[in-house]
Amino acid sequence: MDFPPFLTDALTFLQTNIPAAIAAGFLVIFLIFKKPKFFFIMLFLILILLGVFNMINYISDVGTSHKKTMMQREVRPVE
Fold it and tell me: From CA 77, how far away is CA 73, in angstroms rounded?
């Protein structure tokens, strides 16, 4: 799953569930003001995990496309 569809799904979820979006916003604001160290540690951890997910997704896409091209090649008999 690429990031733009993931972000689109997340934004659609937040737009359709206004109470959940408001609660998430208050939680973020609370963590920034009351526990900034915890907030930035969690933010950093989430960014690292998103980077790892993106890298795994890219590597698997390259492998899948390579497999498709290998399957489409013609095998010609040696004469």
Answer: 13
d(CA 6, CA 27): 21
pLDDT at 60: 79
Mean pLDDT of 4-32: 88
Output the pTM of the full model.
Answer: 0.58
In the chain, domain spans:
3-69
Q: What burial letters (b/e) apply to 49-65, b meaning 16+ CB within 10 Å?
A: eeeeeeeeeeeeeeeee
**Do residues 18 and 73 make contact, with C-beta atoms less than 8 angstroms apart?**
no
| Amino acid code (one letter) for 32 | I
